[in-house]
């Protein structure tokens, strides 16, 4: 016997579509009434639990991404980044902080010569202690080679640095030092320094030199106001000991994307070349610690999320048996009744995931602000646009894992027991 | 649980054309024991309770049948069997010529959707849905378009005197209004048979009389089965069957 009434003029498909659309809208309106009514407690707590789990997942993943991607100092307006492959040692040297690119100043010159490339610069990042007469402050020193265009590296404009890198002197590192330093707003505030002030900079107790503040950036370093200072690359290399090998953490290139990518690949065939202006989530796969951290966060997130959704939705269904019985009494078959439960669970999970993505973004900002104000010289977590679908997908996965339990509770509902009460 | 082979043998040769054209419901030797099947978790020493013993009767279209008897006499079990909510242990239940005992769960659900409207003592409206949405609920599964559902539900609410309360939630309605919404819901698919279990049990006398008037109107062109302890409620019935310990004790 068909499940379709034969006394209606509409086609089978039309009726089937209307039936499922009707069940969906029925479930949505029921969910909304309950979520906004006086008995909203359980739905709200489930949404909150999902949201907090997703937020936790995104914060941890954001930290892992920052670990893998080099942190806030990647905030620049370059077209292409060249970073060393984690396992590569060909043209890079493994330093204490991880692998670095070698012969960067020389190869930057080669890259600049390519058609379509406007400029290329090595970027060396070192934590340094800066003192402007008050207490020393830890600041991320970023060495770059500026040109005559206005560019941004580590969130700070390079305009106030003298064009070129005179101290490099074709690799002899005996050219004149400019002694110029540009501070981010946060760094200047912490140091109490302004343009024209002299600073003492040390990257270790035995390596100290003086710089003069040429400008204070009106913008902060990176997304959350990290204390950052730009200097000429060769001067930082000399100060940090990276001159031997012309080391840098990355190379940044400005220009046409295809030409820049091609020039990068020619210069560093074994390095990672990415055309991006944001953090690259694929970097997670290149960094063992970051990858492990994000995977653990994923597993924990899915487990917690699924457990909570299954438990609370199961309890909700248990309280809602009479509704299921009424649906059965008016002719809604088992498939339709279970669909109502599944849709309801899905809505709860989806709403929780959307809230969770928002909380995750806020959480990353808070973590960065706290870290920046206490233990870290800069941001320790990054938010990427892909986190939005990622958070939602994880919540959906948790919902799929969780939904069999409320469905099992629903399937055991006896209409006679419920309507007889 | 439903046993297909047993049901196949029971479905026998009862065909729609063997019934009088006006017979909406027929029970033939219906016996039902609770605890004899249907439960998923059941201890081996569970005892059975016989709720119905060899009950037979017909309900023609356009008539109201009253069922009376003390608690546990089997009134509600008969209504549930007629509505296809349970399958009796033995005997046949024919609804508009179709033997419900020969059908699968899904097929009984479909029969219920097309031929049965149920009115419960405690209304059983969905509290999160408006009166109109509750009335339209059975039409969702029937595949009726949204606009037609709304129009039909609104018309039914107007017919039961609640046209101005269609957007109210059940919690915002009085007991009598809720029962009228429940009756409107039972009528939404224009069923052949209405089963009403203590329809005035939760209502005061005046409100109960309003509901009975509604049931009387409904009974003019369909079959209505009303189970009640209350003599006033049963006064609307064309015929009253008195049950005692699951047996038909008297018909008047």
TrEMBL record, chain B:
One Pfam family of this chain: ABC_tran
Keywords: ATP-binding, Nucleotide-binding, Transport
Species, as recorded: Natrinema limicola JCM 13563
Taxonomic superkingdom: Archaea
SUPFAM superfamilies (alphabetical): P-loop containing nucleoside triphosphate hydrolases (SSF52540)
Molecular function as annotated in GO: ATP binding; ATP hydrolysis activity; transmembrane transporter activity
Positions of the ABC transporter domain: 25-251
Cellular component annotations (GO), alphabetically ordered: plasma membrane
Protein name: ABC transporter-related protein
